Amino acid sequence: MSVTELSSVLDSKVKQLVEDAMHRYLGVTINEIEADISDAIKKGPLADYQIDSKIAFKKAKIAFKKYYLTKLLKLHSGNISDASTSAKISREALQRLVKQLKIDIDELREEKVSKEYMREIEIQDVIKKTLESYKEAVHPEKFKEMYESAPELSRNIIKSVPEQWLSLKEAEQEFEKIYLAEALKKNNHNISQTAKKIGLRFETLHRKMKELGI
Questions:
Q1: Is residue 131 exposed (0-12), middle (13-18) or buried (19+ Cβ within 10 Å)?
Q2: Residue with more model confidence, 121 or 161
Q3: Distance (Å, rounded) from C-alpha 31 to C-alpha 4?
């Protein structure tokens, strides 16, 4: 399933599940919550990753790449073949990255965590973090009930949405898009100033903005 197809599934099924849950626990529908949860799940490995645009672009990208690959390898219990298939890179390329990024593959092999459990916890966290941002706008008791329903809602979402993991290339593109958009916003969309702050040449930043549709 492509990212575009997954997006379509999320927009239809996830929003409906969230809407049903909100009607049950809050008594109202809040469109922003539906959209925010759906958008967060679309990000895959970026869903619970905090991007800091104060860090230089290249350094931040290396940190994200290590996070992405560590999480992916953990998902596959340290199996290089399975992880390289999900990342859509060769085994050799993944092995080089593991060495370069100093990822402890042996430690990940010792962690026996099922993919289903990891996915459920990840979606629960997305739901809870999204709800937290609306806490002040919702009646405390109703908010508590909705918040506590996150495990049930996450299981229903998993049943309705096929498993999807962004390839390394797709994940890097998403990272760059979010990082650069945040950096530009902090610098009042001044490209020259932004490039200087994040350690890129003006021409490089301008090219990336064009490629990423920023």
A1: buried
A2: 121
A3: 21
The dihedral through the CA atoms of 113, 116, 119, 123 has a sign that is negative
pTM of structure: 0.70
Residue by residue, what is the 3-state secondary structure of 104-148? CHHHHHHCCCCHHHHHHHHHHHHHHHHHHCCHHHCCHHHHHHHHH
Per-residue pLDDT tens for 106-134?
A: 888 776 666 677 777 878 888 888 888 88
1: Cβ contacts below 8 Å, ≥ 6 apart:
9, 162, 164
Angle at 121 between CA 118 and CA 14, to 5 degrees: 105
Helical axes 57-75 vs 115-132, angle rounded to 10°: 130
- Written as one letter, the residue type at 207 is R
CB 91 within 8 A of CB 127: no
End-to-end CA gap in the chain: 25
Alpha helix (H) residue ranges in the chain: 3-9, 15-25, 31-42, 57-75, 80-87, 91-100, 105-110, 115-132, 140-148, 150-160, 168-186, 191-198, 202-212
The number of C-alpha atoms within 13 Å of 163 and in the hemisphere containing its C-beta is: 9
Residues 6+ apart with CB under 8 A from 185: none
Position 152 pLDDT exceeds 60: yes
Query: Phi/psi at 165 (nearest 5 deg)?
Result: -125, 125
- d(CA 54, CA 178) in angstroms, rounded, equals 13
